[in-house]
Design goal:
Blueprint: E1 5-9, E2 14-18, H1 29-44, E3 51-55, E4 60-62, H2 67-70, H3 77-96, E5 101-105, E6 108-110, H4 112-117, E7 122-126, E8 130-132, H5 146-154, H6 156-165, H7 171-177, E9 182-184, H8 187-202, H9 206-220, H10 227-235, H11 239-249
Parallel strand pairs: 2-3, 3-5, 4-6, 5-7, 6-8, 7-9
Antiparallel strand pairs: 1-2
The chain binds acetoacetyl-coenzyme A.
């Protein structure tokens, strides 16, 4: 497994870490494919009874999909389509794991990062965490389930306030919205808290745990049939998405034309 993502096995649980701190732990195609492979490893090992997902360092959990990759010369809508559908499948896999999952959110939790966190059963964060689905600023939409899972978790009105305005929220608001269940004073305390929660969950009866999860997920399940991912793929064919991505990489304000 590459050094940009790794799985550490502890007693009873495992920690999956995205390790691209210079890119704020953004997810490129290779990393998404590797998450899929690591999930095979997690599912094959009965000693892993809980999975923590986190980002390396103290600044960012995951700042979304890799905008640098999207801005690479020659990057085609078909490349984006592959990344999006691969992410769609992998994220649904995370949500459907039989073992409990914890997103330990150690900083920026944006775009595809928040979408991954929302596939986890528990979201806990450090005080420096910031949450947003800012895709509209890039001329694209959150296509890894964000338009479906965010309203499911925080309600339609708040989700529109965040998504349509690319609004960034702090842990106190995330706690009030029910987007996280616990806030720790710093990243070290968060990591200790995640370990402790994982140990607690790993000690529970695995069959009951899997059934509880399945029943709860079924009770709140709204459709997730690839429509949002296909809409995101479409966005990558527009001039506005090229403008939004270029503007981000050139550190300027985008000028959207509606085409
Ligand atoms: N992809 C690639 N690189 C990224 C990145 C991303 N998502 N986010 C940050 N970086 C890179 C920056 O380009 C920058 O690189 P350089 O040093 O080479 O210039 C480096 O990380 C540090 O970023 P900043 O200089 O911007 O640092 P900051 O502290 O001022 O801001 C930030 C940090 C708030 C995370 C800001 O970088 C930001 O807003 N990032 C973009 C977040 C975003 O739009 N995410 C959505 C992506 S699209 C998506 O996820 C689609 C989907 O649904 C699948």
């Amino acid at each position: 497994m590459s050094e940009e993502i790794y799985l550490e096995k502890k007693t009873g649980y495992a920690i999956m870490t995205i390790n691209r701190p210079k890119q704020m732990n953004a997810l490129n195609t290779g990393i998404v494919e590797q998450i899929d492979k690591l999930l095979d490893e997690v599912e094959a090992d009965p000693s892993i009874r809980c999975l923590i997902i986190t980002g390396a360092g103290e600044k960012s959990f995951i700042a979304g999909a890799d905008i640098g990759q999207m801005g690479t010369p020659g990057y085609q809508p078909a490349d984006a389509h592959y990344l999006i559908t691969c992410g769609y499948k992998v994220y649904n896999r995370v949500e459907g794991l039989k073992i409990p999952t914890i997103a330990a959110i150690n900083g920026y939790c944006l775009g595809g990062g928040l979408e991954l966190a929302m596939c986890c059963d528990f979201r806990i964060c450090s005080a420096n965490a910031r949450f947003a689905l800012p895709e509209i600023a890039l001329g694209i939409i959150p296509g890894w389930g964000g338009t479906i899972r965010l309203p499911r978790i925080i309600g339609e009105g708040r989700a529109k306030d965040m998504i349509l305005r690319a609004k960034r929220i702090k842990p106190d608001t995330a706690l009030q919205y029910g987007l996280v269940t616990e806030v720790f004073e710093d990243v070290a305390a968060l990591r200790a808290g995640a370990d402790s929660l994982a140990q607690e969950l790993a000690a529970k009866a695995p069959i009951t745990m899997a059934m509880d999860k399945e029943m709860i997920n079924r009770s709140v399940f709204t459709y997730n049939d690839l429509t949002d991912s296909l809409a995101l793929s479409y966005c990558f064919t527009t001039a506005d998405s090229r403008e939004g991505i270029s503007a981000f990489l050139e550190k300027r304000t985008p000028d959207f034309k509606g085409r």
